[in-house]
Amino acid sequence: MAISVVMPALEMAQEMGKLVSWRKQQGEKVVKGEILMEVETDKAVMEIESPGDGILAGIRVNAGAEVPVGETIAWLIAPGEAVPQELTHTASARRMSTETAQAAADSAASVDQKSAAGPMRMAPKARRLAKEHGVDISKVHGSGPGGEIVSADIMAFVAKNSAAPMAASVPVGLATPAETLGVEVPSAIGRIMAERTVASWTTAPHIFFTKEIDATALNAARQQRLALIEQEDGVRLTHTDILVAVVARVLLKHPRINASWDDGKIRYNKHVNMSIAIAVEDGVVATVIPNAHVAKLGDIAVQRKEMTERARSGRLRPSDIADGTFTISNAGMYSIDHFTAIVSLPQSAILAVGRIADRVVPVGGNIGIRPILTVTISVDHRVSSGSHAALFLNDLADALQAPNVWLD
Length: 408
Prior knowledge:
Layout: E1 3-6, E2 16-22, E3 29-30, E4 35-40, E5 45-49, E6 54-57, E7 66-68, E8 72-77, H1 85-107, H2 113-117, H3 124-133, H4 151-163, H5 188-203, E9 206-214, H6 216-233, H7 239-251, E10 260-262, E11 265-267, E12 274-280, E13 283-289, H8 297-312, E14 326-330, E15 349-363, E16 366-380, H9 386-399, H10 403-407
Parallel strand pairs: 12-14, 14-15
Antiparallel strand pairs: 1-8, 2-4, 2-7, 3-6, 4-5, 6-8, 9-16, 10-11, 12-13, 15-16
Helix pairs in contact: 3-4, 4-5, 7-8, 7-9
C-alpha cells in the first residue's frame, strides 16, 4: 500500500514548510529511517527521515517550494504499484489553483487586494502577529494557498519595513551602494536567524541583569571530573556542560524564568529543556538537551558534542531543536568578557555567558586575584519582573560556589 510523504509539522503553530532538497531521487528505493529530504523551518534546516519502505514516486514539489503542513508532496510505493491517482489529481488541482491565484496577484499588484480578491484570508497566527506589530495587512502579499497571509509573510514585512528608514540616506563619509564590495544573499540559516531576532526584539520587552561570579569552584569541579568523564563517556567536559546541569537545576526553583509567553498567557514548563546556542557558518542555531534538570553530566557532555557536530555539518534532526524552554549562549571561547543576548521566542529568558578571567577583587577584607565569570540574563518583561531575574542570578551564583552539590 502506498505511503504518503507529507510536509511535516516540526514546530508549534507551524503553517508552512520549505523543501530545501530531496536526498533521494524519483524511482529510488528508500528504507524506513533513511534521510529522505531536507526541510527548512523557523529555526533551522533539518533532515527528515523516510516514514516507511518503498520506491520514491509521484514527487510533486521541487526544491525551494513552500508547502502547507500536512500536504502530500510525494509517495512511497511498492514495485509495480501505481501512484494513487485520485489524490494526485486533488493535490495537483489545489496547487494549480494556488499558482493561478499567485499569478493573478502578481499581475494586479497595483490593485487593492480587498477589491480584487474579495475577503482577505489570514492564518490565526498571522493575524495575531499583525496586531502585535501594527501591520497594515492590506499591504502584505500572501504566499499561502489561494493568497492566504501566513505568519512568515507578516514577519518578512516587518523585517523589510524596519530596515527601510536606514536606507533612506547615506551619512557623509560612508560608502554609497556603488562603492560597496558586493551584496550577499543570506543562507537559509542566516535568514531564519534574522527574522526570528527581529520578531523577538520588536515583540518582547527585554530587561537585562548582569552578575560577576567567582568561578574558583566551577574550575575545580571541571578539573575533578575531566578525566573521569573522558574515560567513561569519551568526551571532553566543558564549562558549558557544567553550566547546563547547574542552571537547569536552579531553574526548578524559578518557574517564571523557565516559562513562556503564549498568546497573552504565561505557560509554565514542567521540565527544563536546555537550549545551547551554537555558532554555525552563517549564524546561530540552538540545540536542545531535554530534561537537563535530571540529566547526568556525562550525558549532557555527549549530547552537546554530538549536536554541535550535527549543527555544523548541517545534519540536525527535528528532535535536536524541539521544545527548548531556556537558552544558554556562551561566548567565553571567543575571549568575550560580557555581552547581552536576545530572547529566543517563545522562551522568556536567555543567559549570556562571558569568559572566565582573573581579576583583582576583595577577598576577606584584603585584595586578591580570583577567576571571575560574568553572566547576563535577558528576560521577557511580560513574563518575569526584575526581582525574578535578580533572585535567579543570586541563586545561580550561590550554586556555582559549590557546584558538586548540584551535580552529584
